[in-house]
Amino acid sequence: QVQLVESGGGLVQAGGSLRLSCAASGRTFSLYAMGWFRQAPGKEREFVGAISWGSSTINYADSVKARFTISRDNAKNTGYLQMNTLRPEDTAVYYCAAGNTMNGVVRGTPDYWGQGTQVTVSS
Length: 123
Fold this sequence. Notes:
By secondary structure, the chain is mainly β. Helices cover 4% and strands 48% of the residues. The chain has one helix and eleven strands; from the N terminus they run βββββββββαββ. Strands 2, 4, 5, 6, 9, 10 and 11 form a seven-stranded mixed sheet that branches. It has a four-stranded antiparallel sheet with strand order 1-3-8-7, with no helix packed on it.
């Protein structure tokens, strides 16, 4: 079992950057694919990106390609979402997720969810 806790959200100006962290419990974190999702007010949850257990495969939503970077440090049991050139439409609650298959995470059916962290981008 895995527990996930996001941090690093906040209020930033458009064009700015934030790095979100996802701290995971359990020695087996390195065996899980992980991903990031976001949900804006009044909208459905949206896939942001995912990374395989060994970082050999990384997928991004078209809306964040070239601006966001997913990474992980298995030695620290932590995943990251680096967000650059932020736009007001990036405003949302961001959730990290983990699962035993990459496909499960990408499809939005991970085995574990974090509680989310708010990101607000002002214009």
